[in-house]
Write a structure and sequence with these properties.
Strand content: under 5%
Structural class: mainly alpha
Oligomer: single chain
Helix content: over 70%
Shape: globular
CATH superfamily: UbiA prenyltransferase
Number of domains: 1
CATH architecture: Orthogonal Bundle
Radius of gyration: 19 Å
Number of strands: 0
Distance between the termini: 50 Å
């Protein structure tokens, strides 16, 4: 049983929850003025883990035929037969139930908006079949994390004072889209052969890397706007500066002629960025008072 659990967690890359969870906590901290209740922390964490498990289980199910034909992904547990599709289907179902319970425990608006969240969590995996905008749809789906946490605390998203949540969702959208553009460069030839849509497959790797840089520049601009609006303290600005340096480093790791270090750029650097921003926001809230 332990080995099966290990294989399942590896299949859904459970450790990559670290990409989205810190941004959910950022939305939570900003909405609560740095003082969320432990009950809110608990249920937001449960909701995020459930949403991430649901999304990645669905991703592996939706892409299993493509993964089996792609040399880069053919060694994943599902194509190799180490994991049964039924296991992932159960994971999708159970995660949906847990996410629903977490939404109910937070507030009625979270429950009311849950069908829309599920639509993106389940549906974004299929967008690559018909549009090269899939990178930004993925980014928006991940961007729902800070917005969802904000709504869990404030119970609203349409008021003027909810503007920071919209800035966060835009920042996460451009951040995720930027590094997904880099990651997709590895599969440009495969996507063309299979009729899948992505910017590298449609427009070429050089343009994809340029767009990735522009997206990450947009993320930094949005983070600057967030700090100005909320009057965050100096640790936040130090954190944003370090994030900028990490993004520059990330883009120096890859080029149209050398994608050998994409995994370092995709996994390691972006994990540092998400955690760093969480610490920066938390510290900025404290020192900005």
């Amino acid at each position: 049983m332990g080995q099966r659990v290990k294989i399942f967690l590896e299949a859904i890359k459970f450790q990559h929850t670290i990409f989205a969870l810190p941004f959910a906590y950022i939305g939570m901290l900003l909405a609560a003025g740095g003082r969320p209740s432990w009950n809110q922390v608990l249920w937001i964490t449960v909701a995020m883990v459930a949403a991430r498990t649901l999304a990645m289980s669905m991703n592996r199910l939706a892409d299993r035929e493509y993964d089996a034909r792609n040399p880069r992904t053919a060694t994943r547990p599902l194509p190799r037969g180490l994991l049964r599709p039924e296991t992932l289907k159960w994971a999708v179902g159970i995660s949906s139930v847990v996410l629903t319970v977490a939404a109910w425990a937070l507030n009625p608006l979270c429950v009311a908006l849950l069908p829309g969240a599920l639509l993106f969590l389940i549906g974004y995996h299929y967008t690559k079949r018909f549009t090269w905008l899939s990178h930004w749809i993925l980014g928006f789906t991940d961007g729902l994390a800070p917005m969802g946490a904000w709504i869990a605390i404030r119970g609203s998203f349409w008021k003027l004072e909810d503007l920071p949540a919209w800035i966060l969702i835009a920042a996460v959208t451009t951040w995720i889209a930027g590094f997904d553009l880099i990651y997709a460069c590895q599969d440009a030839d495969f996507d063309r052969r299979e009729g899948l849509h992505s910017v590298p497959a449609r427009f070429g790797i050089p343009l994809a890397l340029i767009l990735a840089r522009l997206n990450h520049l947009g993320m930094l601009i949005l983070l600057v706007a967030l700090g100005i609006i909320l009057q965050l303290g100096w640790p936040y600005w130090l954190g944003v500066g370090l994030v900028g340096a990490l993004l520059v480093y990330e883009h120096r790791l890859v080029s149209p002629n050398d994608l050998s270090r994409v995994d370092v750029a995709f996994f390691d650097v972006n994990a540092y960025i998400s955690v760093l921003l969480f610490v920066a926001v938390w510290s900025g809230l404290i020192w900005g008072r």
